[in-house]
Amino acid sequence: MAVLSEEQSMLRDAAKSWVQERSPVTAFRKMRDSGVAVGYDADAWNEMAAMGWAGVIVPEDHGGSNFGYLSLGLVLEELGRTLTASPLLASALGAASALILGGSDAQKEAWLPKIAEGAAVGALAIDEGPHHAPDRAAATYTDGMLSGRKVFVLEGMAADILVVSARGSDGVGLYLVRGDDPGVTRNRLSLADSRGAANITFSDAAAEPLSGGYELVEKVLDRVRAGLAAEMLGSATQAFETTLDYLKVRVQFGQVIGSFQALQHRAAKMFTELELARSAVEAALAAIDADSPETPELVSLAKAKMGDTFHLVSNEMIQMHGGIGMTDAHDAGFYLKRARAAEAAFGNQAFHRDRYARIHGY
User: CATH number for the domain including 33?
Assistant: First the structure.
């Protein structure tokens, strides 16, 4: 496990306390049932921003705390425990990273302070089909105008600024498009995990290029992948702990089911996989903070490992809870649905295994 500074420990504890008091799973259920178009509770998001979470990676001269990716990962992990839906990943991590790494001084000044205070929401528009293939973008950028279609854009309905991948004269790069541009058309999606997402069509939308080309695309995606892996770690850990508590109280055949050796072995398997996944996730976040050349392989390792682990734990949560675990009245289904959606986002296990192998020359 990562060795945390005193400030990081305080940030994690504050996030844990807020999540337990303000955003338990019942709050997520209430948000889902409300049918809110953006897919998150705006009041809860405003509270997160007021606590400074939206500015964790933003430089101090643009209104943030410049506290690093591991620190933001700690917050995302706690939010993942209760499945808290928010633009923190897409906006405060994804869009903010794109601006920090590739934005001009004017672009940073225009958007980073707003993102840091939660006054503006950013989103990444990368994928164009059912499979993650960022290097195959078909959207085009010509003479300041961007056209194309993006799918499964997380927080796409709420975004004030969109970071869009498109093919220009120098290959695939990232471009800024205002969400209210007349050339932007959004269609809301209803995803299994009840998060906010949209398909977006760009028809000669005014766009501003970010510098860095395709290298910037990969750097930004790796930061989002690592952050998502941290959120998945929190969700999987909570799913495991909830299941473990159930094994200690559920009585069947006159015995607590946790006394059955077969279930003990399965619980031990989950615990072991979670510990390994935690090491991979924290190593990826630390590598980003250190600007390590090993960042791409560590991020792909973390996302693939976390995908496998969350898949396992969410399945076991359903099975070990039995009949009640299959009902909407129980929270187990929320964790399974979130696992499946998070696995696919920004590259599934197959994508990242293949990428890891290619990095190592296989």
Answer: 1.10.540.10
